[in-house]
Task: structure prediction
Amino acid sequence: MPHQHMSNELNTCIQACLDCYRSCQQMAAVHCPEVGGKHVEPDHLRLMLDCAEICRASAALMINQSPFHQQLCGVCAQICRACAESCRALGDMDECAQACERCAESCERMAAGSAS
Result:
């Protein structure tokens, strides 16, 4: 059942994107302002908000069965990788970094066309 496998892969990617969206959005809105310091530097906060938004958009395009989801997933993976790196560099953000990494891996597979 190749179609079922693709549906599972697509659903896994949608969930990874939604999990990453939730994590980045919450960390940028709640955790980082509470911690302060480097956590609230503009470049880091913008990257987290960009990551949240591209994850939300990627999930929406996959849910909508858009023919453009693979391209957006490729960009999503790049932003997620950058966000994970930024979160790890600051420390105390492992949960967010892990969500970004899971999303990046799933989106990379999607962008490669393994589950169109």
Observations:
- The mean pLDDT is 93.
- The chain is about 85% helix and 0% strand.
- The CA atoms of residues 12 and 73 lie 13 Å apart.
- The radius of gyration is 14 Å.
